[in-house]
Specification:
Layout lengths: L1 E10 L5 E12 L2 E6 L8 E6 L2 E13 L2 E8 L14 E2 L2 H6 L3 H4 L5
Antiparallel strand pairs: 1-2, 1-4, 1-7, 2-3, 3-6, 4-5, 5-6
Length: 111
């Protein structure tokens, strides 16, 4: 789980180029989830642009949820994301979170 603003580019079936800003909600080695203002058709090829590069993929799902469209992107087979390649500004590391001692465990027992 993460949060970062990214650029999104795609070309529609009529050859019209589109560009917008989206919110990166989730990312994994094989795909990502974006929150966008408008829907994208399944199978649309797109690029996710970030400050030092881009990730290419295809829309695998798209649905409306409260304030926008959740768009799933499956990365191209040649592309695998890793935190070394691109680290979103707010990235939740669940392994690190689960391994950390709880605040209650840090407290000393009352005597």
């Amino acid at each position: 789980m993460c949060a970062d603003m990214v650029g999104v580019q795609w070309t529609d079936d009529g050859g019209q180029a589109h560009k917008c800003t989206g919110l990166l909600e989730d990312i994994s080695p094989h795909g990502a989830c974006l929150q966008l203002d408008d829907p994208l058709p399944l199978g649309t090829e797109l690029d996710i642009e970030y400050h030092k590069g881009r990730l290419a993929g295809v829309v695998s799902y798209c649905y409306f949820c409260e304030i926008g469209y959740w768009v799933g992107v499956q990365f191209s087979p040649k592309i695998k994301w890793s935190p070394k390649r691109y680290r979103p500004r707010h990235l939740l590391n669940l392994k690190k979170l689960l391994a950390a001692p709880s605040p209650a465990a840090k407290r000393k027992p009352a005597q």
